[in-house]
Amino acid sequence: MRNWPFLHWRSLRWKIAALVSAASCAVALAVGLLVHERTYDRSMNEGAGWAVRELTTVIEEHRRTKDEAAVAEPLQEAADLPPELRQRIRPGEYTTWYDDSHADRPWMWAAGTLDDGRPLAVRIEVGADLRSRQALDRTMLRAALAVLAVVVPLSLLAAELPNRRLRRVAATARRIAAGDLDARTGARGRRGGDEVAGIAASVDAMADALRGRLRGEQRFTADVAHELRTPLAGLVTAAELLPESEATGLVRNRVAVLRKLVEELLEISRLDAGAERAEAVPVALGEAVRESAARAGLAARITVDGEPAAATDPRRLDRIVTNLLVNAHRHGSPPVEVEVAAERDGAAIVVRDHGPGFPAELLADGPQRFRSGAAERGRGHGLGLTIAAGQAAVIGAALTFANAPGGGAVATLRLPGGPAWDEGRAG
């Protein structure tokens, strides 16, 4: 359905078409009922007039000639008249009644009394008038359907323009949410002040403000990290010159932590600025993961399924795997397990610990700098997973976070396959 938005029945286009169709049907129904009622009343009045004229002609002929033969045919005994008509007869008055008991041959009755009080009734067939009304109803129905057949497509076409503009605004908003801070709807500078243009302009203004704030934050992070490098270098040198003692060890430890923090801040600033570029080469993932764990000095139960490989940047891959292992050991509980397996369109590296798992905020919003999550997962600056996610984006990999059903945090790095690896193996 996403590939065919025109067929999505919940889209604004179809809602507008349904509203226009409902309004058109309501108008057609109201006009049809009005015309039908007016035509029916006119037919009843004309039929009653014809019947009464026929009745008065017979009565006048009887009065003039006193000829019983003049009323022999239209004269009916009271008992032979329809009950509905018989109840309506009043001396000296004319009454009419429409008899539609025979749907194909309706009659219009007119009844009165002779001078001697005898009831007299005549009837005329009004089937032709009925058929004329039925033909008019069918014509109005066909006309209404024809109008709907034209109005609905036209309403769909008319709704397409604002719908297309709204889709463009939504697509731009999704790009901004995905990190493309330069995405814009292009609504500024265009003529037109409708609601869609207002929404588009608001999205562009929001993107400008968001980009300004994020770039200000990035510049601040980079400036702080750069400004700290010079005094930190002096602090490292001074710490090395201190005489050996327990206090010196504590100072050197804290200086090392501070130095690592500054390096991580510089790395994040480069990632934020988009200055990092990957250099992809064929990499045997099982061997690369084992080497990363060995260099970090971290114990992990590594399982390699087959011969998974990918064309990626080995230095950045090592950075990602190391950060994931450090996070699992620092915030989780042993054993830490790493599974490396080939997939149909690439390979996957899964790092799992057996601790309390990732906090709900991280699962919902992803890793955030200077937010280490729940207290039970330990302390930290929250930069390790942020750097891992940034480096994964640089090499074109997908890094996702989840909690295992049996407990523990699970980080999955999926690397895409590609022709570069196949060409490297063939060489």
What features would you describe in this structure?
With 427 residues, the chain is an alpha+beta fold. The protein has helices at residues 12-65, 83-86, 127-177, 195-241, 246-273, 285-296, 314-331, 360-365, 384-394, 419-426, and strands at residues 95-99, 107-113, 119-125, 281-284, 301-305, 309-312, 337-343, 346-352, 398-403, 409-416. The chain has a five-stranded mixed beta sheet with strand order 5-7-8-10-9. The radius of gyration is 45 Å and the shape is rod-shaped. 23% of the residues are buried. The model is unreliable at 374-378 and 418-427 (pLDDT under 50).
- How would you write the strand order of the largest sheet? 5-7-8-10-9
Structural class: alpha+beta
β-strand amount: 5-15%
Radius of gyration: 45 Å
- DSSP helix fraction: 55-70%
Keywords: Kinase, Membrane, Phosphoprotein, Transferase, Transmembrane, Transmembrane helix, Two-component regulatory system
Catalytic activity: ATP + protein L-histidine = ADP + protein N-phospho-L-histidine
Protein name: histidine kinase
Main location: membrane
What's the gist of this structure?
The chain has 427 residues and is an alpha+beta fold. 56% of the residues lie in helices and 14% in strands. Residues 374-378 and 418-427 have low confidence and may be disordered.
